[in-house]
Amino acid sequence: MTHPALDDALKHHFGFDGFRPLQREIVQALLGGRDVLALLPTGGGKSLCFQLPAVVDGGLTLVVSPLIALMKDQVDALQGNGIAATFLNSSIDARVATRRLDALDVGRYRLLYVAPERIVMPGFLERLARWNLRRIAVDEAHCVSEWGHDFRPEYRRIPELRARFAGVPLVALTATATQRVREDIERYLPLNDPARFVGSFNRPNLRYAVFEKRDAARQLVDWVAARGNQSGIVYGQSRQTAERLAQRLRAAGVAAVPYHAALPAEERARNQDLFIRDEVRVVCATIAFGMGIDKPNVRYVVHYDVPKNIEGYYQETGRAGRDGLRSDCVLFFNGGDAAKQRHFVRQIEDPHERDLAQRRLREMLDLAATPHCRRAHILRYFGERPESERCGNCDNCIAPPERIDATVAARKLLSCVYRISSRGGFSTGAHHVVDVLRGHATEKVLAWGHDRLSTFGIGSERSKDEWLFFVSELLREGMLEEDPLHRTLRLADDGLQALRDNREFAYAKPKAAGRAKKAAKVTAFAGGAADDDLFELLRRLRKRLADEQGVPPYVVFSDATLKELVAKRPTTQTEFRGVGGVGDVKLDRYGETFTAAISAYAASASGAAQAPHRNPSEGDDRA
Ligand code: ADP
Ligand code: ZN
Fold this sequence. Notes:
This protein is an alpha/beta fold. 47% of the residues lie in helices and 12% in strands. The chain has a seven-stranded parallel β-sheet, with helices on one face. Strands 8-13-12-9-11-10 form a six-stranded parallel β-sheet, with helices on both faces. α12 (310-317) links the parallel β12 (298-303) and β13 (327-333). The protein is globular, with a radius of gyration of 28 Å.
């Protein structure tokens, strides 16, 4: 197919004005009849790569997908664009299944989604042979590999499907890119001389930031409160944290629900659904949450606790901003949390696993503490060479942190901890250590004779907060260890070694906790309050239309489309069609309703006062 014809089809069926990186190439390879391996990050637009060929090129596209919950959402989204799609899985009853099978017999559908179990169900392949199968898409293809994070044995039955339909091109798609997983995918499906496409793992619209964690629950409430009606995910370490934070947010008037593995299945499903349908704003979750959601308008992901490794961090933050609009990824972090994680990892019994976990944690802690570009750090971690060492869209690029030389302070602190424990044979908490350093003759100091230590009073030049910051940094670096129960400090072997080696220390000055609040306040529109009002109005209209059809709001229009509607304010059908995300079916379905709402808004006093048609690229924060 020629370039313009593909562009027209993209606009006509999906409403998009252009392809995302590699989408066009993948579509063309598939239309050319080749097998394809496509590695694109979350939000890269993988679905479109097989959906567009399915609609421009007759016959049936079979989509193998592991997530039953997602199938319905994807089919809803396709039907929202007027594309004939359906799914077969264990969630539908026999009558409905029979109806769908009959419709497949007469060629009613362009796309059929199935779970991999379906392939080996009696009679399925025979029936499939009657359906003019033109193409097979294997979504989440890493599930075929034991090296991936989500191995599904049923994926190993896909070769039976391949063998039966040897000439039918197959596309395997995944966001998991390690070499081993890649090789497994090619070997086990198997792929036949595939065209390989590997996208960059950079997510330019995600803004990464780390804030010093202090009174974290308060920080979280401030952050969420500053984000208006936006959707967000908060990841915490434990089920209790998820519950507690959801409660805390609710007490502050925010619609929030918890999500973790210990909740009954129905409650989990309900909470997820509330979130997808924009009925609650925030999900407070453990890492159990996220695999099965495609919600494109997650505007922020907060890590309340430090993740165990960069893979997890990248995956979880990756759930923000699939629609390409600016979204925030924030980590609340301090050395105490680092020490807690370290302690936890030390308990792993298998020495090989422990080593691995320790290494991966150290890499994550380095990312949390780096004074340099966080994006460049992440990309290098995944083996990519970043385009620039300054992305301009992470906290360190936006406001480079001050470096402080901490060599003298670290020596004083490490020796003080050492002296305290060798004196009495017991350890004390950080506050006591700081009292000794600063020469405060408290009751405890006197009772334990710590006023007679050589380190008593050698740190009076610094404030208590400064010392606590150094404690936090030395914990993060593993120079100090903290007993998780009694919160007492001891000198780690590495700390002793550092004293002997006269090691130098330097730290990035932490971003004050209050900065998080400021960073949270994003103004979505350069146009200010009037634009916000119109966005809110369109959002409510979208929600009403979605509820009437029983689908999630994003099936009607994405946030990106709403934003463009606010910026362009189309009042005719032609103008409306010029907006990204408006395909011809949606133009028919919603054009009049939305343009009428926009006209009415413009005519109302507040709207009329300021409705200059701005160039949509101005104030558009798509990165
Ligand atoms: P992935 O599966 O790679 O995470 P999706 O297929 O879910 O990504 O796509 C993410 C979002 O991007 C969806 O909301 C989709 O509608 C949108 N999208 C995909 N391709 C384009 C495009 N060419 N232009 C604009 N939006 C797109
Ligand atoms: Zn940067």
